[in-house]
Structures are given as C-alpha cells and as structure tokens.
C-alpha cells in the first residue's frame, strides 16, 4: 500500500460521495412514483446514462466494501444497510449504547415496499440481520450470521418513524445469541433472534 | 375509476418505465465503485438532481405498490424484490413451475454487499422471504409472512450466478409451510423455512 493511499482523508471523501448517494436515493424514490410521459422519461433516461458514463470512466471493477481508515477504523462504504455510498441502503445510522444496546431510528419510503404502502417483510429481515449482527461485532473481529429467526406480529407502514434495536442475550465460545425488534410508535411489528459466529482466526 | 384509467396499457408502460429503472440500477452500481474527483462528482450530482426534478413534477405522493391490470392481474411495480420500476430491486424474475416450485436465477452486484465482496446476509433473507412467500400466494389472496427462519451455511459471493428456489411443504388452514434456499454453482449457501398466512377475509 502506498503512502498516498494511507493518507486518504475519509471524512473529506464522505463529504464528496455522501451527497452523491443522497441525490441518487431521491432519484430512486421519485422514479418509482413519477407518472411523467414517455418523452420526459426518455430525456431523463439520457441524462442519467450520461451521468453514469462520467462516473464509470474512473470506476474500480470491484465493489467498495469495507475500507480501513489510517487509524484502523472500518467504514462500510458500500454496505446494503448502513453504506454511506450505497444508494440502496436507507442508510441506517447505528448507535451503540454503553450497555451494549444497538439501535437506529429511520423512515422507509417507496423503494422498500412489499404489500401496498407497507414495508416488505424481507426488508425488515435485512435490517434486523444487520442490527442483531452489529451487537456481536468487535473491532477487527467481524461476526457472521449463523441462524436468524423472524416473527412478524403485524405489518410495518412506509413513511412512519421506525426504530430497530437489538442486544446480546448471551455468548457461548464463538457464538453470540442476540435478540431485537422493529417497532413503530404503536409497538413492536417484527421480532428477531439470531446466532452470530466469530470465525476462528 | 375512470374509463381512461381502466384502459391503461401496462405492457406499454413497462417499456417506458422499465428501461428508466434499469438505467438507475446501472447508476447506483457505478456510483458505489467510482473514484471520480470532487469536481466531476459535483457536476454529476447536479445532473442527477435536475433529472429528479423533472420526474418529480408529475410524481404521485404515494408509492406505486401493486397495480391491477384491466384483466385483473396484479403487477408489483414498486416491490423491493421483483418491482420492475424499483431500482432498489435486483429485480428478480420469478418462475412458477407446474409442480409448485418457484425459482429465479440472478446475479447480485455492489449494491447488495455485506462482508467484502459477499452478499449481505440480510439480502439473502430479503430474497428468501419473497420467494418462499410467493409459493403461498394465490390470485387475489396474498399471503403474509408469519415466521421465517434462516440458516447460513457459508457466504454467498457477489458477481456469481445464484439461484433461489422454494416450494410448499404443507398447508394447515390459513397457514402455508414453505422451504427454500439460495445456492451458487457449488451448492446451497442459505436455507430457509417460513410460515405464511392468508388473512381471513
């Protein structure tokens, strides 16, 4: 790795690539709701294709994955749930409380729909997998999902404030047993429990 | 509902909105991999914001959800897994075999990343929830996820051909018990079983 690479200022890069991803999130959302006529759509499509070409001229072939900052912190740039650079990610901002609780508050819009006007059950599963997994992560020691069980109590609405939280119930050797849920302002909508594994080095 | 609305030609709309979503999927993918400089990013962002504004001028406030065609078929335009109009959806094209097997073959790129260069475990959960659920759907009788259990055997790579499949094991009253898995060319990576419920009308 070159010195130049070690000196990358990630906070500065965030201020460049974060707003780009946020713009694309807005485009994604509006593109699902628009009723624009075919002529407008064709013109907009050309504009988007030209934007893609400009970005592609300097695109790396592989995904951006987890990057390491000079001080050893990891940044999950491209992650499907928390990735600052990934327009598919809502993205969730995770909070880690001193007692081990991991939580996030967020609102999901049109791109996360399953039943009309409700969050896709699998999107709740995606988010719970990530947040339960985050309770098991340790610096430099990622944890992988072993099993995950979801119980859907009722539907989760789009466009409302949601909260996800999770905590560790117990650990046994390389296994961490975690529980958590998604809730709206009326209470829990989806419960989850999972076993997460730290692979032996 | 007006006659005009009843006469919407959905196959024609697919040919307008499908390519737009496909363009945005390419933009999403490239935006995660680009290393373009701040000046280029700013110019591209302006272009994207202008495209969003053009689409927003005629956007409905609510998501597009499930639309009904004149002949009573449902089209999940905005669905997070199969939605033709949803750039967040890969989208999966589901095949329903006469014996009840539901399957799809697909490749996932940068937007679906969890561990570096591998599919986010929660994305596999999202896809399995949808495909297991699809085994339980009947025309006009949607099924909702009751419980879903996932077992992760090993990691699933980005950029490789994947196959998901599911079938019904048994039904008990309003409950359908289904099983399925995600596999790559070397075999199963994630197994799932789920209980899906047809709400009493």
UniProtKB/TrEMBL annotation, chains A, B:
Q: Does the keyword rRNA processing apply?
A: no
Q: Which SUPFAM superfamilies match?
A: Thioesterase/thiol ester dehydrase-isomerase
Q: Which GO terms label this protein's molecular function in UniProt?
A: hydrolase activity
Membrane topology value: Peripheral membrane protein
Boundaries of each Thioesterase domain copy? 118-190
Q: Per the UniProt record, which residue ranges are transmembrane?
A: none
Give any single GO term for biological process: fatty acid metabolic process
Q: Which UniProt keywords apply?
A: Apoptosis, Cell membrane, Cell projection, Cytoplasm, Fatty acid metabolism, Hydrolase, Lipid metabolism, Membrane, Transit peptide
- Per the UniProt record, one Pfam family is 4HBT
- What EC number(s) does the entry state? 3.1.2.2
One Gene Ontology term, aspect cellular component: cytoplasm
Domain of life (superkingdom) = Bacteria
Top-level class of the enzyme under EC nomenclature: hydrolase
Q: Which InterPro entries match?
A: HotDog_dom_sf, THEM4/THEM5_acyl-CoA_thioest, Thioestr_dom
| Record field: catalytic activity | hexadecanoyl-CoA + H2O = hexadecanoate + CoA + H(+); tetradecanoyl-CoA + H2O = tetradecanoate + CoA + H(+); (5Z,8Z,11Z,14Z)-eicosatetraenoyl-CoA + H2O = (5Z,8Z,11Z,14Z)-eicosatetraenoate + CoA + H(+); (9Z)-octadecenoyl-CoA + H2O = (9Z)-octadecenoate + CoA + H(+)
Report the family membership: Belongs to the THEM4/THEM5 thioesterase family.
Name under which the protein is recorded: Acyl-coenzyme A thioesterase THEM4
Task: Name the species this protein comes from.
Answer: Mycobacterium rhizamassiliense
